[in-house]
Amino acid sequence: MVRTIIRNKGFLARKSTRATEADAKIASDLMDTFLANKENCVGMAANMIGWLKNIIVVDAGFAPLVMYNPIITKKEGPYETEEGCLCHEGERKTIRYERITVMYQDHAFKPQKQTFSGYVAQIIQHEVDHCNGIVI
Q: Could you give the residue numbers annotated as active site?
């Protein structure tokens, strides 16, 4: 189901809790909402649709990728950039990393560890920030 994008700063500033298999419906709604906003969006976190769960979806280039409980375990190559977000107007400056390693659970809740670089890495960092209550 396509959900409304949350713009409430107080809600978005709250840290998300660990996702479980019982949260699969949230991930499904997150994917539906992401796809409905695809022309203006490259990633989305569950808090953006009203759920404080540690779930993100990112445009991984080949297909949207859902990550449950993503944790960035390694960062390399810091750089300054500007990012926009569906949760606010305009762009804001931030520091991102060119290459990151992420531990997460896939759609079947199997543990994964993967390294990402470039724009996909930037998207993941933005969405993990959302899960941690940080809005750029």
A: 127
Containing structural domain, residue 65: 9-131
In tens, the pLDDT along 60-116 reads 888 899 999 999 999 999 999 999 999 888 899 999 999 999 999 999 999 999 999
| Residue 3 in domain | no
- Sign, Cα dihedral of 91, 81, 51, 107: positive
- The 10s digit of each residue's pLDDT in 98-111 is 999 999 999 999 99
Domain presence at residue 136:
no
Write the CATH number for 65: 3.90.45.10
The DSSP bridge partners found for residue 45 are 56
Q: Which two tokens stand for residue 34?
A: 């992401």
Whole-prediction pTM: 0.95
Q: Which residues pair with 53 in a beta bridge?
A: 17
H helical segments located in 37-89: none
Q: How far is CA 114 from CA 49, 88, 136, in A?
A: 26, 30, 24
* Total count of domains within the chain: 1
How is residue 65 written in tokens?
Answer: 């990728």
Q: Estimate to the nearest angstrom the gap between the alpha carbon of 60 and the chain centroid.
A: 11
